[in-house]
């Protein structure tokens, strides 16, 4: 039990050390971004409804908004899988995000 606690403490300390990096992105960021996009991809559907509903009313939200949301959810989920599978490969250059609007589904950008 003591070994497990010691290993866990070492892992937490290692991961909490700031990385002196040339960019904000690294393999761990790419892996986390991919997991976040895979898990939250489905949130695009209600977001699409809400965006279209705010602009054109509930009929537009229920039709076009849901369709656009489904399309974006599938895309975000596939990009999440891609980033998880390729997180060790610096493609795009310097582990930059593929989706930038927003980079994470639940971000405020």
Question: What report would you give on this structure?
Answer:
- This protein is 64% helix and 0% strand.
- The radius of gyration is 18 Å and the shape is elongated.
- It has 109 residues and is mainly α.
- The protein has one domain.
- The termini are far apart.
Layout of secondary structure:
Elements: H1 2-16, H2 27-40, H3 44-56, H4 58-85
Give a summary of the structure in a few sentences.
By secondary structure, the protein is mainly alpha-helical.
Based on the model shown, name its key terms.
109 residues; mainly alpha; elongated
Percent helix among the residues?
55-70%
Based on CA inertia axes, which overall geometry fits? elongated
Order of secondary-structure elements = HHHH
First CA to last CA: what distance?
43 Å
The number of distinct structural domains comes to: 1
In DSSP terms, counting alpha (H) and pi (I) runs of 4 or more, how many helices? 4
Task: Write down the Rg.
Answer: 18 Å
Poorly predicted spans: none
Rounded mean pLDDT is 86
Largest sheet: none
Approximately how much beta-strand content do the residues carry? under 5%
Structural class: mainly alpha
Number of strands: 0
